[in-house]
Design goal:
- The protein has 524 residues and is of the alpha+beta class.
- The chain has three domains: 25-56; 79-410, Methylamine Dehydrogenase, Chain H (7 Propeller), CATH 2.130.10; 455-519.
- It has helices at 5-20, 34-56, 82-88, 91-94, 404-416, 436-446, 455-463, 469-476, 480-512; strands at 98-101, 107-111, 118-122, 126-131, 136-142, 149-152, 158-162, 167-171, 176-180, 188-192, 197-201, 206-211, 216-222, 230-233, 240-243, 248-252, 261-264, 272-277, 283-288, 292-297, 308-310, 315-320, 326-330, 333-337, 351-354, 360-365, 371-376, 379-384.
- The strands form seven sheets. Strands 1-28-27-26 form a four-stranded antiparallel sheet. The chain has a four-stranded antiparallel sheet with strand order 2-3-4-5, with no helix packed on it.
- A hairpin with a 4-residue loop joins strand 8 (167-171) and strand 9 (176-180).
- Helix 1 (5-20) crosses helix 2 (34-56) and helix 7 packs antiparallel against helix 9.
- Involved in nucleolar processing of pre-18S ribosomal RNA.
- Keywords: Nucleus, Repeat, Ribonucleoprotein, rRNA processing, WD repeat.
- It holds the Pfam family WD40.
- It is found in: Nucleus, Nucleolus.
């Protein structure tokens, strides 16, 4: 039996209302007010037209904006080379894909928060900054000693370099402006921009928080888990995720001397090589020495279904873009995965890069751009990845096209709005909520007219319910002596209360004499 056209249309309208609707439909027949009923009818008609228009517009939304789409079932997007992409995109976009042949590799790469400038540092001591869009060199220095890690600070005016002995801070001209003498052999660094905290860790497992605005150490914690093999920050709550040698990932804040949480992300025999958290603070991706790649939902610390991925070589670096693309650098190649956070396991990557004998050391996504920066043994490469960047940005928060005046105003405003380290927690939404239980307790304590609690009434209330679940369990286990003890304690309390009342009445008789004797009740 076939459905009529009216039934099919009603069913399609119900599906569209469930997908695009604004709640349940208002029943106007039960409204007595004629004017209100007509007004609600017009509103419902407008909502119905909007729902149907949204349903009809689905035909125009076949693909996600910005991503590569294969023309047939046989074609694969990961086979597309960078030369083909540069020929297909506009001239300005094609210029963003380039290569820098630097002989002093391997190189580490870091972008500023607005993606305007690039920081490059080789492990042999070569450090350089540049405005990568126009190729303008900022500074270039040769430290002539080992460099373990580099990190931009709150803007492009200063950056930190972890050298052989301690951490140095340089300005954008490459002039040394500060030396952190207490930061010895730092292997990993992270900077919290809203708290102005530089977080460092060394092979001995010591975690330190340094306030760069005043130059003081805020907190110093010993993890007691051996050398830290990987570290990243959660942009949502400023919690540090640290990887260790036995496959564990721990979460840290400057307010606790112990880990806030521990996750056994990989096998105990596989050290963590790299870890990354997405911008929303929902998912975490970690890579271990055994070549496994795990995806975790850190909202409830549960691994999604079919989330185990493998690489032919251990992953050296992982990065997550603003749109949720996961780039994994392993060996001489980089694999870029799309929709990896879903429940279904993805068989093939979205795009790939490399295979030319250049060992990947660090990969970073450029903010607000479809660009992936790759630091490798032969220098640096900028790869174009369509659909990776967030096209919309808040200029009052982070402005990729800011001038000098705007940068100065932003720096002053961020210093005035600097958050204290005590505000770092797993749940940052607790700020602004009311503690109703504590408020009620404080109001009860301030109530001077409150009557004192009656001990006998409390005991009587507690003694009620001979057939409660606890009493039944105790009788079943043969613990009658506990019940007998409660009865005896209640009887003693009642007798003591009666004796005290009788004593008070006798004292009154002795004090006022026989004039009040006729009001006495003989203590009954």
């Amino acid at each position: 039996m076939h459905d009529t056209d009216a039934e099919v249309e009603r069913r399609r309208e119900a599906e569209a209302r469930q997908k695009y609707g604004r709640g349940q439909r208002v029943r106007t027949k039960s409204i007595r007010d004629k004017k209100l009923r007509e007004t609600l009818k017009r509103v419902e008609e407008k909502n119905k037209k909007a729902i149907l228009a949204a349903r009809d517009a689905e035909i125009l939304q076949e693909h996600d904006a910005g991503f590569l789409e294969p023309e047939g079932e046989i074609e694969r997007t990961y086979k597309v080379k960078q030369d083909e992409i540069q020929r297909s995109v506009s001239t300005e976009t094609g210029k963003k894909g380039f290569k820098l042949d630097l002989p002093m590799g391997p190189y580490l790469a870091e972008y500023t928060r607005n993606g305007k400038e690039l920081l490059l540092a080789s492990k042999t001591g070569h450090v350089a900054t540049m405005e990568w869009r126009n190729g303008r060199l900022g500074c270039e220095i040769n430290l002539k000693e080992m460099v373990r890690d580099v990190k931009w600070l709150h803007n492009n005016q200063s950056f930190a370099v972890s050298q052989k002995d301690c951490v140095y801070i340089y300005d954008r001209q490459g002039v040394e402006i500060h030396k952190l003498k207490k930061q010895h052999e730092v292997s990993h660094m992270e900077f919290l921009p809203y708290h102005f905290l530089l977080c460092t860790t060394n092979p001995k497992g010591h975690l330190k928080y340094v306030d760069t605005s005043i130059g003081h150490i805020v907190s110093e914690i010993s993890t007691h888990l051996g050398p830290t093999t990987a570290m990243c920050q959660n942009p949502w709550n400023a919690i540090l995720h640290m990887g260790h040698g036995k496959g564990q990932i721990t979460l840290w804040s400057p307010n606790s001397s112990t880990a806030l949480a521990r996750i056994q992300a990989h096998r105990s025999s596989s050290p963590i090589n790299t870890v990354a958290v997405d911008r929303a603070g929902k998912y975490m991706v970690s890579g271990a020495q055994d070549g496994t790649l795990s995806v975790w939902d850190i909202r409830n610390y549960k691994r999604p279904v079919d989330s185990d991925y493998f690489t032919h070589r251990p992953a050296s670096s992982v990065a997550i873009s603003d749109k949720g693309l996961v780039a994994v650098g392993w060996g001489t190649q980089v694999s870029i995965w799309r929709d990896i956070f879903g429940k279904m396991k993805i068989k093939n990557p979205y795009m790939s890069w490399g295979g030319e004998g250049q060992s990947v050391s660090r990969i970073r996504w450029c903010p607000f751009e479809d660009i992936l920066g790759i630091g490798h043994s032969a220098g640096f490469s900028s790869a174009i990845v369509p659909g990776a960047g967030e096209p919309n940005f808040d200029a009052l928060e982070v402005n990729p096209y800011e001038n000098v005046k705007q940068r100065q105003e932003t720096e002053v405003r961020s210093l005035l709005n600097k958050l204290q380290p005590e505000m770092i927690s797993l749940e940052p939404d607790f700020i602004g909520n009311l503690d109703l239980a504590s408020a009620e307790q404080r109001a009860r304590e301030r109530d001077l007219d409150r009557k004192p609690d009656d001990i006998v009434a409390k005991l009587t209330k507690k003694a009620r319910g001979r057939n409660s679940a606890l009493k039944k369990h105790m009788r079943k286990k043969g613990q009658q002596n506990v019940i007998t003890y409660d009865k005896l304690r209640l009887q003693d309390a009642i007798q003591a209360n009666n004796a005290k009342a009788k004593e008070n009445k006798e004292r009154e008789l002795e004090r006022y004499g026989p004039a009040l004797a006729k009001f006495a009740t003989n203590g009954k």
